[in-house]
User: Fold this.
Amino acid sequence: MTVPPDRHYAVELRVSAERVSQVRRIVAAHLRHWSLELQVRPVCRALDELLTNVRRHVGDENTCVVELRWTGRHVTVSVADNSPRMPRLLEAGGGLSRVMALSDSWGTCRTTDGKVVWFTRYAQAPQSAGLLPYPPLPGVRESRRAPLTALAQALV
Assistant:
């Protein structure tokens, strides 16, 4: 499936504390632009874990590539770096355990230059609620208010 250009974002960066927060804000802005507001917090938290792992285990001076895609059904975030050292899922929690808890699927794979760590979240396109209220459900009685003048006369 070909992803339309407005549903794909990629950036190459040197991982530092400042850049991590910048990329997190940029990814949040893309998700909001794609009307995926409910995905902002979990996606950004999981991305933060991946970038922190790159910083901690690969180093500040190395570059990585962050890629964000939305297919209309799933948001996929991947972080590629140039370290051949594969990440491990620790029993103590944190790191990839947190990514696993925040995503529907995740994984790693080796590349010729290092590795890629990715995760996905189910994110179907939101439907517009429209401006008019929905009609009552069948079998649900509609309550009607008495006109204000009739109510005022009843109180007199």
Q: What stands out?
A: The mean pLDDT is 82. The first strand starts at residue 8 and ends at 14. Residues 40-57 form the longest helix (18 residues).
